[in-house]
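Sequence only, no structure available. Ideas?
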Amino acid sequence: MNYKYNQVIFVGYLLSLVTLMMVFVITCAPAEEEILCGNGAIDIGETCDGNDVGGWTCADIPALGKYADGFLGCTAQCVLETSACDSCWGYPCEPEDGYGSAVGEVIEDLTYPASNNAAQEYGFSNSTPEEFALSYVYKQGISKGGHWKGALIFITTGWCPYCRYEAQLLEESYQYYKNKGIMFIAVIAQDATGAAATKEYAENHADSYGWTFPAIHGEFPMKFWPNQVGYPLNMVVDFQDMKIVKADSGALMNRDLIDTYLGDVFNNEGE
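Reply:
I predicted one. Tokens follow.
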């Protein structure tokens, strides 16, 4: 009798133990995580999901740099995909030996305060209305399917008498050359006293000649002057690759000289 009773107790104990283990398994096992990647919305731990890249652009990726553009995608693991980005889309990448200052070298992306409406328009389109940069016009150049083949950059001052001769010729020449894809850019470096030009001075200076092409102000690096320093400096930059094609100190004193200077570079289109 005791033996059967003990068996009943033992079986009951086993049943109780199994039941307890089942409860433990049911109540203590971790819940299965909900799979959110692929639902088209960015959730915690994701940088993107589907077509939603969180407003990021290629230029926001530090490893690519500020000139990057292209298509920023998203992997199946909800991680940003940069293979379709182009780090040099917005401006030619810096050569191994650096941006240069001589003919045949890629000019750096010079940035200046805008001095007239024409310059500000480029700033507005790049969310910096008070600035003008070479990268702004490069993105509208022929290498990007745009209109501009290159530019004549005219560096001038308010005190230079020879600068005035060329300055008064530029607007008429620009009206002719802009239709051929050649931009003019005036850099007003100094005022009539030799001091650095202010925005007010540069604006008045540009208006006095009726310039409708971009005018900017600020000191221009001396490294770009060939052989000797002397105002004005005329420089031609090719927008295909932003290489300096010409750089000469001294004024172009008449329209024929301007035509020859530009025509030598742009297939004699001034003739």
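DSSP finds six helices and eleven strands in the chain.
Hope that gets you unstuck.
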